[in-house]
Amino acid sequence: MGKDTYRDGDNLKTFTNFKIKDMDLQNRIVMPPMCMYSANENGMVNDFHRTHYGSRAIGQVGLIIVEATAVVPNGRISNRDLGIWSDDHIDGLKSIVDDVKKSNTKIGIQLAHAGRKSDSGDEYIVAPSPIKHSDEYQEPRELSKEDISGLVKAFQEGARRALDAGFDTIEIHAAHGYLIHEFLSPITNKRGDEYGGSLENRVRFLREIIRAVKNVWPNEKPILVRVSADDYVEGGIDKDVMVKIVDFIKDDIDLIHVSTGGLVSVKINAFPGYQVSHSETIKKECAVPTIAVGLLDSYEQAEEILGNNRADLVAFGRALLRNPYLPLKMAYENTIDIEHPEQYKRGFR
After folding, report:
1. Geometric angle at alpha carbon 294, from 35 and 28, rounded to 5°
2. How far apart are CA 178 and CA 167, in angstroms?
3. Which CATH architecture has domain 9-348?
4. Best exposed site among 58, 275, 312, 327 by fewest CB in 10 Å?
5. Chain center to CA of 134
6. Gap between the Cα atoms of 244 and 282, Å rounded
7. Closest CA to 203 of 178, 172, 182, 228
8. What φ, ψ does residue 256 adopt, rounded to 5°?
């Protein structure tokens, strides 16, 4: 991955704890949000979600972040996404939280709005500017300033419901070509008001959401933001622009989850660790903790990233779909002594 693998005896980091505010993780392994498309049309939790997240907690993931969860119905990526736009969603989400916490795993939820990439089947979709994502999507309505205020309130209400459900942290989804990312990038934001034009104006929507969330979210619980640090297209966001964006918000958030792409259809040279350099740059240039992600699947990759200070946490997505007990397997294969679920101890002696 372009660096020397970090293996220095007692200084191995993957299975060390990481504390940010009052959230103390048992290790540095994160399960990032991955859409499961398994809710009903009302966005409700069901048995699949409890099994899916609960099994990764038994597998000793340090932090699980629940999939993109829509703050309004037409902000869903699909009509099978989880929702958090109603108090009716709280009990189901709380059932996931309760199951996960039995295994000493911390849990967050990603608050999301799909913007012009919504395929929810709702009557209309919205965006900062009326530009289609592609011919496969509706043309979105341009948001008025009143609409924007309403969506800021929707994110705030989503955070309140997440708190009522017992989540340890929340992640604001500002990546992958969805609504907040659409405001951030000049490719999709052609507005002529205070929400468009200059970089500071394009960041305004995200800053308003963060500050509204902070009004209902306890100071002792961290706030995460997921970003796409490269649009991979001329005139879009790149690593240097994302550093400036993070500088605008870093005093109000606690951790940046660094991804790339998703704004437009473009071929990306994806390889194991292809996004790690973006995490490294943001961590060093902005002096904020980061989560690295991007086709990671091995303990050696985690140690290289953490040991070379390229990120503070490492997210395994597809690898945790393939094996919900990946942390247990990594510890066993590398003779690292960790606490195992009582029921599974005999498998790791």
Report:
1. 90
2. 23
3. Alpha-Beta Barrel (3.20)
4. 58
5. 24
6. 9
7. 182
8. -110, 125
pLDDT per residue, tens digit, the chain (349 aa), is 334 444 444 578 999 999 999 999 999 999 999 999 999 999 999 999 999 999 999 999 999 999 999 999 999 999 999 999 999 999 999 999 999 999 999 999 999 999 999 999 999 999 999 999 999 999 999 999 999 999 999 999 999 999 999 999 999 999 999 999 999 999 999 999 999 999 999 999 999 999 999 999 999 999 999 999 999 999 999 999 999 999 999 999 999 999 999 999 999 999 999 999 999 999 999 999 999 999 999 999 999 999 999 999 999 999 999 999 999 999 999 999 998 889 998 988 7
Residue 313, Cα to own-chain centre: how many angstroms? Answer: 12
Q: What proportions of the chain, in percent to the nearest 5, are helix, strand and coil?
A: 40, 15, 45
Cβ–Cβ under 8 Å, residues 124 and 138: yes
Domain ranges of the chain: 9-348
Cα Rg of the chain (Å, integer): 19
The answer to whether 93 and 108 are in contact (CB under 8 A) is: no
| First-to-final CA distance of the chain | 33
Instruction: Evaluate whether 312 touches 61 at the Cβ level (below 8 Å).
Output: no
> φ, ψ for residue 127 (rounded to 5)?
-160, 170
List, in sequence order, the alpha helices (H) in the chain. Answer: 47-58, 90-101, 145-165, 179-184, 199-214, 239-249, 276-286, 299-307, 318-322, 326-333
| Bridge partners (DSSP) listed for residue 169 | 108
Tokens of 19: 């504390």
